[in-house]
Amino acid sequence: MKPQVIIIGRPNVGKSTLFNRLVGKKLALVDDQPGVTRDRRMGDAEIAGLQFTIVDTAGWEDEDDLTLPGRMRKQTEASLEGADAALFVIDARAGLTPLDEEIARYLRENEVPIVLVANKAEGSAGESGVLESYSLGLGEPVALSAEHGEGIADLFAGLWPIIGEKADAAEETADYEAEFDEDAPLGPLKLAIVGRPNAGKSTLINRLLGEDRLLTGPEAGITRDSIAIDWKWTDPKAGPDDDGEREIRLIDTAGMRKKRNVTEKLEKLSVADARRAVDFAEVVVLLLDATQGLEHQDLKIASLALEEGRALMIAINKWDIAGQGGHDTPSGLFNGIKAALHDGLAQVRGVPLFAVSAKTGKGLDTMLSAAFELRENWSKRVPTAALNRWFDDAMEANPPPAPGGRRIKLRYITQVGTRPPRFVIFGTRLDALPKSYERYLVNGIRAKLGFDAVPVRVSLKSPKNPYNANKGGGGNYSGGSDKT
């Protein structure tokens, strides 16, 4: 494994900006207000060939453990366990604060090697803060500007004596495995958990991991960044010749409220980050709150996932308290949500629906097993011969209409892509083909070819007449017009 380096410091000293600089991407949300980061975020970092895993953490605050800032601090403390080094970041322009000194005392009591980083040291404004930081007793500070990229070479010099040997060993191991491991498993299932605020997304992931990896609590909107966590799940239904170990990349996302209710800049950034997480997922789990049922916003989130071509499944969380304080029985609630989904998601029928409990673990193994099956369907390719046999049978059972007495001719179909499955139908007079017939074909693809609730894309393509706008002639059709 690559060496792991933790970034620690009080709020608003530029930890997330440094994280983004080291990973080379704007992965972590950055804003002027303190306390933007709440959960640990990991990324692959590299400085002059030195490769390591960098971990961004929440700002360290001196608050009671039961408060939100206190719980954020406990998450940061937990991140030090197993770390190979820590970057203690201070704000050189603001100078040392009592909180900086308290963090330094805590770090000196731990065995993790510390590299002191004086950020925002560009220009003369940070000189006094850099000199002042020597008093912390953590050695010579690395003066840098995470925003402008200044001083990163000095950071390399501070980290190399601590993690250089382990980084080299990890790189050699990775090269060996890449060259010789012919039976390397497929990539992990990218599973994004989405939903409205306080549906229990972070709690569900913590339950799966068996640890309090993500910050949770009664406050709505705790999660801000989309956090990806690599994890191995053991399938209880695996056969005797299968160890059942499945790789999953769990992606926690910020809660998505109605657009008109999102007014603050930071929440807009969080929702945009959640949308990007959906783009990179393979299977999306929409988590509902059993105590609130299905709302219009849930259908909008589901539609977003389907529009992006992701495989969708829906889980009703808090099933252990379903029906309490209300008139609906659990079975009535389940059937009611199922019927509402049938009406509200007309573009995909039969989306998998599960009753789960992040608190007790009910239904989570069943949900994960179904997610792998759904990804398999989402990635499936149908042989052209079998596809056109189905196509011929579908047209024989229900021929295309003949508006104005002129029949629409559908010649053949081919699959042009997967993830999601994409098909192109070739024919003539396709502009006149009714939407109802298109739906008939899409529903047939799902029902007869095993795509079930997977979003399917079908495009219609008509050949152009080469004599209409081309110079010369030629007997071959070229180009085409699309109708999707």
From TrEMBL:
EngA-type G domain segment(s): 3-167, 189-379
Residues that bind GTP 2: 195-202, 252-256, 317-320
Annotated region described as Disordered, given as residue ranges: 462-484
Family matches, as PROSITE patterns: G_ENGA
Taxonomic superkingdom: Bacteria
Any one GO molecular function term: GTP binding
Annotated InterPro entries: G_ENGA (IPR031166), GTP-bd (IPR006073), GTPase_Der (IPR016484), KH_dom-like (IPR032859), Small_GTP-bd (IPR005225)
Acyltransferase as UniProt keyword: no
Binding-site residues, GTP 1: 9-16, 56-60, 119-122
Transmembrane segments: none
Any one Gene Ontology BP term: ribosome biogenesis
Pfam families: KH_dom-like (PF14714), MMR_HSR1 (PF01926)
Entry keyword GTP-binding: yes
Role according to the record: GTPase that plays an essential role in the late steps of ribosome biogenesis.
Assigned protein family: Belongs to the TRAFAC class TrmE-Era-EngA-EngB-Septin-like GTPase superfamily. EngA (Der) GTPase family.
Subunit and partners: Associates with the 50S ribosomal subunit.
PANTHER family: GTPASE DER
Protein name, per record: GTPase Der
Source organism of this protein record: Erythrobacter crassostreae
